[in-house]
Design brief:
Number of strands: 0
Order of helices and strands: HHHHHHHHH
Radius of gyration: 25 Å
Strand content: under 5%
Shape: elongated
Helix content: over 70%
Distance between the termini: 27 Å
Number of helices: 9
């Protein structure tokens, strides 16, 4: 069971692939801009600085997947509640019904199977289990649903209507996010291609006409120009990713 969905920890295999591929990419890029084997070998270790960004990216992906799967969980809960089940029974049934759609290693199945074991084996409170799930998920939609559910249980509200309304709101939000991603996907692709064009041009010149760019690799002015080009390309790519990363 995942203790905190906002914190991603790479497996040993992921760590080897990330550092291996990242080191090679950084070393090749630096060599392409400076033609210095020593500098390339040293700068390859800068991939360590990218590890927090990669883990943050994977954590966001996992949280988005959990939110999408949580919507299916709400549909199952709504059907069970409408049939007269209590929330503990609805959670157990949700674990069985969603097992057809998701594998045991999917986030929502790990959570539902954990709740099922705690409810059937230890007779634990469904409110405590859902509150713990919301705290670890770090997802606003899940947290809001659990808070509304606890208030509904304490005040005697209509649980069936609350679940149905929450499902509708979550579906609308996900549809809006999907539309925004579709609109920004092309711009992201264009920005990445533009950022790669100088690197591609430099590679082509190195292969086809190396004598044409010899001044860029000799003397202080050439080194400054190459450093400026590399820095501007990386800065532009970073700004593009931030601008196109729209969240609601």
């Amino acid at each position: 069971m995942i203790r905190n969905y906002a914190v991603y920890e790479m497996t040993d295999k992921e760590r080897v692939l990330f550092f291996g591929a990242g080191y090679m990419a950084a070393a090749i890029l630096v060599f392409l801009f400076y033609h210095s084997l020593v500098l390339s070998v040293l700068c390859g270790f800068l991939v360590i600085k990218l590890k927090p960004y990669y883990e943050s990216y994977r954590a966001r992906q996992r949280m988005q997947k959990l939110t999408a799967q949580f919507k299916d969980m709400l549909y199952s809960l709504s059907s069970s509640i409408a049939a007269g089940r209590q929330m503990p029974q609805a959670l157990v049934e949700a674990a069985d019904s969603l097992a057809v759609m998701y594998g045991p290693n999917e986030p929502i199945m790990m959570e539902l199977n954990h709740m099922k074991r705690c409810i059937l084996g230890n007779n634990e409170s469904d409110r405590e289990l859902l509150a713990d799930f919301a705290r670890r998920s770090c997802c606003e939609d899940i947290h809001n649903f659990v808070q509304v559910y606890i208030i509904c249980r304490n005040m005697g509200g209509d649980l069936e209507k609350i679940i149905a309304r929450t499902s509708a709101i979550l579906t609308d939000k996900m549809n809006i996010e999907r539309e925004i991603k579709a609109v920004t996907a092309q711009k992201k692709l264009e920005g990445r291609l533009i950022a790669l064009m100088p690197v591609a041009m430099l590679l082509i010149l190195n292969l086809l006409s190396p004598s044409y760019i010899v001044p860029l690799y000799s003397g202080l002015p050439g080194r400054l120009i190459m450093t400026g080009c590399l820095g501007a390309g990386l800065w532009g790519l970073l700004m593009m990713e931030r601008i196109s990363n729209v969240e609601i």
